[in-house]
Amino acid sequence: MSDTTICLPVLPHYTLVISKDTGRRIVGSLDSRTQAGNFHKQSREEVRHRASPPEKDKMSTDAIKFFFGRYGLTNGDIDKLLAAALARGGDYADLYFEYRVANSVNIEEQIVKQAAKSISQGVGVRVVIGDKTGYAYTDDIAFDAIRHAAETASHIARSGGSKQVAGVNATPTGLNLYPVAVPVSSTELSKKIELIKQGDRAARGFDRRIREVQSSINDEVKYVMIATSDGRLVGDLQPLARFGITCIADDDGNLQVGRSGGGGRVGIDFFEGESSPEQYALEAARQAIIQLEAVATPAGTMEVVLGPGWPGILLHEAVGHGLESDFNRKQTSAFCGLIGQPVASELCTVVDDGTIPDRRGSLNIDDEGEPTSRTVLIENGILRGYMSDYLNAGLTKSARTGNGRRQSYKHMPMPRMTNTFMLAGLDSKEDIIRSVKRGLYAVQFGGGQVDITSGEFAFSASEAYLIEDGKVTAPVKGATLRGNGPQALKHVTAVGNDLELDPGVGVCGKAGQNVPVGVGIPTIKISEMTVGGTQN
Known about the structure:
Layout: E1 2-7, E2 15-20, E3 35-37, H1 44-48, H2 58-71, H3 75-85, E4 92-108, E5 111-129, E6 132-138, H4 143-153, E7 169-170, H5 189-206, E8 210-228, E9 232-251, E10 254-264, H6 277-292, E11 295-296, E12 300-306, H7 312-320, H8 325-329, E13 350-353, E14 374-379, E15 382-383, H9 390-396, E16 404-405, E17 414-415, E18 419-422, H10 429-434, E19 438-450, E20 456-468, E21 471-477, E22 480-484, H11 485-490, E23 492-495, E24 500-501, E25 507-510, E26 513-516, E27 518-521, E28 524-532
Parallel strand pairs: 7-9, 11-21, 12-19, 18-27
Antiparallel strand pairs: 1-2, 3-5, 4-5, 4-8, 5-6, 8-9, 9-10, 12-28, 13-14, 13-18, 14-15, 16-17, 19-20, 20-21, 20-22, 22-28, 23-28, 24-27, 25-26
C-alpha cells in the first residue's frame, strides 16, 4: 500500500512526492504568501465579510455565499472541477476551500512587542482510489488555477475512464456550536491590548517576586467550504481565540515559571466574564510562586493521582493517538485488533466529542464536510471503536466519525481527535487522595512524548505535590511520569466525580500538522507508575 501526495503551488511548477504507507506525508514547500499587514490596517474586504451572529445552518450558507460571491464561483463550476479531478478515474474527489484571517498581539516588559495580521487562502483538491490519494493545492482561488490542481491530483488514478460526478447541492450541517456575536478578530486592537494589560497588572500584583510577565491574544476567523463528488456542498465559519500568559518568579536567583490561559470558539465577551485575563494571570503567578518552594521529586514506582482538566493531555497522547483509525489500519497502534476486548480498567470510559458548544476542539463539520459526533472509544474498559475519516473508514468498512481534520488547505485530512476525555466516576477527589499512603499528585503538565506502536510515554509534570499518609504535602519539581498507555489505564483504581475539560489551549501535532483540540479528565488514581525524580 502507498500514500501519494501531489502538491501544486500557484507557481507553474509542482512537486510530486510518493511515499510508502508509513504514516509520513511529504509535502512540497513551495507556496506564495498572500498578504501580511499590521493591526492598524483593516482591509475593506475584511470589514465587508465580517461575521454576524449566526443562526442554525446560517454559518454553512454564509460560508458558501462568501466563496461564491467573492470569487465568482457557481455550482456548475464546482461540478466541472470535481469532474476534472475524476477525469482519469478514481473512487472519490473533494475540494477544500479556505479563507483565514489571523491576528496576534503580545506584551513583554509591559510594552507591546508585536502585533501581526495574516491572511491566507487556497483550495486543496483530493482524489482517492483504493488506498491511494492524490492531492494538489493552489492559493489562487480562481477556476483555472483550481482546475490545474484538479488535473494534477487526478494523475493518481490510472483506470483510464472518468467517473460520473453527482451535482453538488448545499447540505445543511444541523449544528451551530459556536454562535459568536462579536468575534475576537473583529475587536479593536486597543481593546485587546487593554485586556492583556489587565492580566499583566494582576500577575505583577500577586507577589513582589513576580519579575517577568509575557502575555498574548491570538485569534482567527476561518471560512471553509467543502464540495464532494457524491454531491455534498457544505460550509462553516469558524472563530477561534486564545489568551495565554507566562509568569517568571525570582527569589534570589531561584527562577521558576508558571503558565496559564484559555479560550475556544468564542467571542470577545468570553474574556470579559469569569474567564478574564486577570483570572488566568493569577493562576500563572500562583504556579510560579508555588514552584519557588518546591522540593526534589523522589524517584521510583508509586501511586499517582492525576488532577482534573489539563492532565487529560496524558490520556490524549498516551491513549488517544493509538485510537485513530489510520494507525490501526496500518497495524502500528498498540490497540490494533482489540475492539471488543478489555484494554483498561472497568472504571474507564473514554470518548471523543466534537459537538460540545464553544470548545476549542469542536467543529460543526470536520475538514471533509462530515458532521462531528460523540464517539465512545472505550466503554467500561472495553475497546469499542476508533476515530475515522473518509479514507480509513472506507478501507476498514467502518462508519465515519467526523474526525477527518487538516491544518490547512495545503494538507490532506487524516483521523484526528477533537475533544477527548474520560467520563466522571463516583469517587470524590478528597477520598481518592486519602486512599494514598505515599504517592504523587500531578495537577499540571508540560511537554511529553509517546510511541504509538508500543504505547510507551514520558511526560513532565509542571506542578505536582507529594501525597503522604493521605494528605497533599510539599510541592515538588522535576517530576516525570513514565509508563505504557494501555497498561496505565488497566491500573486505574479510582475515578473522580469532578470531570473538567481543559481551559482551551490545546494544540495537537501529527505528521507535521497542528490542529486545535480539547482534553479532559476527572481526578483519577493509578495504582502504580514510574516516577522520575531529582532527589539524590
